[in-house]
Amino acid sequence: MKILEAIGDIREEIKEARRNNKSVGFVPTMGYLHGGHLSLIKKAKEENDLVIVSIFVNPTQFGPGEDFESYPRDLKKDSSLAQSMGADIVFSPSIEEMYPLGCSTYVEIEGDITKKLCGASRSGHFKGVATVVTKLFNIVMPNRAYFGQKDAQQVAVIKRMVKDLHLDVEIVPCPIVREGDGLAMSSRNTYLNEEERRAGTILSKALFEAKERIEEGEINPLKISYFIIETIESEPLCEIDYVEVVHGETLESIERVKGDVLIALAVKIGKTRLIDNLRLEV
User: Fold this and answer.
1) What is the domain-level CATH number for residue 218?
2) Is 247 considered catalytic here?
3) Tens-digit pLDDT profile for residues 1-24
4) Which of 38, 48, 71, 128 could form a disulfide with 60 if both were Cys (CB 3.0 to 4.6 A apart)?
5) How high is the pLDDT of residue 94?
6) Are residues 44 and 170 in the same domain?
7) Which domain holds residue 120?
8) Among residues 282, 266, 272, which one has the least CA distance to residue 72?
9) Which of 37, 125, 166, 247 is catalytic?
């Protein structure tokens, strides 16, 4: 497996792959890989000839006071894990490589799809996400790109961007991978102490109990939201950012729980902000 830092080097690898009619699968990450990331790499390996994993902590998607500086990093471990799952190349550029001096071009998606859920409290976040993903797509030019459904809004935003800009890449969403206690895998889980980690399990508990209520016939999205809020608020360490029941693709508000439905939430536990969701076909 190769570890490359320069855009020119990764482009040479892509040219060689194209000359040999190889399909390219791409897994963009911010590193500190966990089981969720590894499931994406495994899926990419199953469906493509060449698998590239990017490891880049993108500064433009972090707001003031967020955890850019403290975000966990371990390139050596990440590279070993990526290789173990069949990755062929790890692309780990510097900030200067991705955002050269004087860089002033950004990609921004307008509308509810970026303004609600995480976008409501993280101004500019999805502008940073859309910009770096566009840059990476232009560099790697993959046939397919793999994203975890845990970041459901990110998946929706990227799919919208790909459609709007006519980008020639297939977006492949992959299921959430959970710990044994139900907590959705996340690099930020490392911030949690033992007590906070225990408290965090209330998120998946609330979601799956809400799913049961829907299966029993509840179709009022407000009642589902209120139930989840009450459940999470029973845990004193939890501070809710949002709980919303929306359309799974557009993220627009819905009047009844029917069709493609996303139940999404964000909760702060201590200094750590966790997100989780369930996507249902009702």
Assistant:
1) 3.30.1300.10
2) no
3) 999 999 999 999 999 999 999 999
4) 128
5) 98
6) yes
7) 2-174
8) 272
9) 37
